[in-house]
Amino acid sequence: MTIDGADGGGQLLRTALSLATVFDIPFRIEDIRGSRPTPGLKAQHLTAVDVVSELCDAEVTGAELGSDALTFRPGDARRTSLRADIGTAGSVTLLFDTVLPIGAVADRPVELTATGGTNVKWAPTVEYHQLVKRPLLADWGVSADIGLERTGFYPAGGGEATLRTYPSSPSPVELDTRGALERVEIYSKASEDLADRDVADRQAEHADAELEDAEFPTEIRGVEYVPARSTGSSLLLRGVYEDTLVGVDALGERGRTSEAVAEGAVREFTAFHATGASVDAYMADQVVPFLALAGGRVRIPARTDHVRTNLDLVARFGSDCHLDRGVDGTLTLAASVPPSRK
């Protein structure tokens, strides 16, 4: 099949690589990231292509920096141990997102160790993966874990993490409701050079105070200072509901106070809580490939561009995954298991 890459970013390519390998369907993607200010393959996209092509012994053409077209033909082999160096602060977790659906249906364990950015902009942090996505995947029958060896902030990166997946039987994703909020857990960390300014402590304590003011039950679960090549900090708010988990990430930046980081995260969590959705905005598009594999229903907070492009793409691979709008305005992603996976 031929995919128009102009309407999506790197996620469109990553999802295509995942599903092409799972369903054994070759594809050609053209005008890659064509609507972006700097189109074509960047280092982190090329790393995803290289990793998946090595994983399944694919035949690939166009895998070069800056390339605007790529052809990918998956092979029959499945390698079980891989390493990748993005070479920049490109996101390690987005690379893991590409491999997770493949590992979920593999008949042998898969291990991928990657270096790059673990806590960077425009991507879920490694803590989000460990504390929100991995437990949700476990509920859906996907067995995986992520170990963090070293944190990597922007711009130097240099973080290292390992994804391990195990033979699984993905089950339908059923998250129509979330139940009552039990607590909001706070996880804060900063590079060691920020310890004398108490950055991680201030992020956590201010988030705790802001959440209490909003009458949310809170608990500070982790405050740490870690070695890193670049100065940085991150904050994760994990909402623990009766039936689900949600996460809100925030990153420290030069010129932005720890208190401002905390306030931004709390505002985002408060806005999510008001929607009544069962997964956060990050997970809303990340769950689409798993719906394509196993079917199910998930209530989401909004129809983002990432959700839209992912839905269009999985339909090309034979999934009937679609978006239902309830009479009360709520949005639910729904899908049955495609014939090739039954």
From TrEMBL:
Its gene is rtcA
| InterPro entries hit by this protein | RNA3'-term_phos_cycl_insert, RNA3'_phos_cyclase_dom, RNA3'_phos_cyclase_dom_sf, RNA3'_term_phos_cyc, RNA3'_term_phos_cyc_type_1, RNA3'P_cycl/enolpyr_Trfase_a/b, RPTC_insert
A cellular component term from Gene Ontology for this protein is: cytoplasm
- Coiled coil feature spans: none
Molecular functions per Gene Ontology: ATP binding; RNA-3'-phosphate cyclase activity
Reactions catalysed, semicolon-separated, are:
a 3'-end 3'-phospho-ribonucleotide-RNA + ATP = a 3'-end 2',3'-cyclophospho-ribonucleotide-RNA + AMP + diphosphate
Q: Which domain of life is it from?
A: Archaea
**Positions of ATP binding:** D97, Y282, M283, A284, D285, Q286
| Compartments where located | Cytoplasm
**What's one GO BP annotation on this UniProt entry?**
RNA processing
**UniProt KW keywords:** ATP-binding, Cytoplasm, Ligase, Nucleotide-binding
Q: Which species does the entry assign this protein to?
A: Haloplanus litoreus
- EC number annotated for this UniProt entry: 6.5.1.4
**Residue ranges occupied by any RNA 3'-terminal phosphate cyclase domain in the UniProt entry:** 8-317
* Protein purpose: Catalyzes the conversion of 3'-phosphate to a 2',3'-cyclic phosphodiester at the end of RNA. The mechanism of action of the enzyme occurs in 3 steps: (A) adenylation of the enzyme by ATP; (B) transfer of adenylate to an RNA-N3'P to produce RNA-N3'PP5'A; (C) and attack of the adjacent 2'-hydroxyl on the 3'-phosphorus in the diester linkage to produce the cyclic end product. The biological role of this enzyme is unknown but it is likely to function in some aspects of cellular RNA processing.
What is the similarity comment for this entry?
Belongs to the RNA 3'-terminal cyclase family. Type 1 subfamily.
Note whether Nucleotide-binding occurs among the keywords: yes
In what residue span(s) does the RNA 3'-terminal phosphate cyclase insert domain sit? 177-272
Catalytic residues at H306 (tele-amp-histidine intermediate)
Q: What is this protein called?
A: RNA 3'-terminal phosphate cyclase
Lineage of the source organism?
Answer: Archaea, Methanobacteriati, Methanobacteriota, Stenosarchaea group, Halobacteria
Q: What class of enzyme is it?
A: ligase
